[in-house]
Amino acid sequence: MEELRTLNTTLTVFFKDNKILLGEKKRGFAKGTLNGIGGKQDEGETIDEAMIRECQEEIGVTPIDYVLIGKIHFDVWYKGERVNMYMHVYTCTKFDGEIIETEEMLPKWYDIDNIPYEKMLADDLLWMPMALEGKQFVGDVKFDKNMKMLSHDFKEI
Q: Which of 115, 118, 120, 109 is nearest to 14 (CA)?
């Protein structure tokens, strides 16, 4: 069996007044799609530290009231290499700072009842409803080189 490199990543979904904050990726992995805020864990960081740093870098805020609600394993192609990616999904309802646009992310609030799933990655449609209901979950997703979802399995925990 092929030994794949492992990447640990974070994704934070912010909620406020029946709205959800999604960011349009302006570069890199998943460019042009909407998603939560996040990125790769650096060596020496805890996963919580990585989540906080990524939010500070990508939209200029520091999460204060946050909860780890899910973990998704991806068999995915990242920068031309097939990898095992473990995404730690957080929700956040309180943060310090003002949300800003950066060279990486264009953040925008959307009504929870009108989330533009058509601009998001295919797996988001599978776990986002659980996140909106405050449920915890685990998932396993496989994508091909063109980010076409080949298989998926999600479970509420």
A: 109
SS3 119: helix
DSSP 90-133: EEEEEEES-----SSEEEEEEEGGG--GGGB-TTHHHHHHHHHT
User: For residue 95, which of 13, 3, 8 has the smallest C-alpha distance?
Assistant: 13
Domains with residue ranges and CATH for the chain: 5-156 (3.90.79.10)
Return the DSSP state at 40. Answer: B
39-58: pLDDT as tens digits: 999 999 999 999 999 999 99
Interatomic CA distance for residues 140 and 155, integer angstroms: 9
Q: Tell me how far apart the 2 most distant CA atoms of the chain are, in Å.
A: 48
Phi/psi at 126 (nearest 5 deg)? -90, -40
| Per-residue pLDDT at 1 | 57
The predicted model scores a pTM of 0.94
**Rounded Cα–Cα distance for residues 48 and 101 (Å):** 22
